[in-house]
Design brief:
41% of the residues lie in helices and 23% in strands. With 104 residues, it is α+β, with helices and mostly antiparallel strands. β1 and β2 form a beta hairpin. The chain is elongated and about 70 Å long. The termini are far apart.
Length: 104
């Protein structure tokens, strides 16, 4: 019976650790979302590009130092009910030197 209790206790501790790790990640999340015109979206992308080039991105109250190299992803998805989504993602990871779009 004691072995069963130990196993149950270990499982509960693992769950608690997982919840604590998730809560810690949530504290660092920031998201900005608004309905903008194409011109305003372009302005926001240019501002982001300037920050990325400078090596520091500010999102809300969070200031992020970017490494010299990071993983970059741009994707398109057709959403349900006919919606569309273009998503730009920057992740710290292994260096990849591939040009995805012409930079003229």
């Amino acid at each position: 019976m004691a072995k069963k209790d130990e196993k149950w206790q270990a499982k509960q501790e693992a769950k608690a650790a997982k919840r604590a790790a998730k809560a810690e990640r949530q504290k660092h999340r920031r998201k900005a979302q608004a309905v903008l015109t194409r011109g305003q979206i372009a302005d926001q992308l240019r501002a982001l590009a300037s920050q990325v080039e400078a090596g520091t991105v500010v999102l809300g109250d969070k200031e992020l130092a970017l490494p010299e190299q990071a993983d970059f992803e741009i994707s398109y998805q057709l959403k349900r009910k006919g919606g569309h989504e273009i998503e730009v993602e920057i992740e710290w990871g292994g260096p990849k030197q591939v040009t995805l779009l012409p930079t003229e």
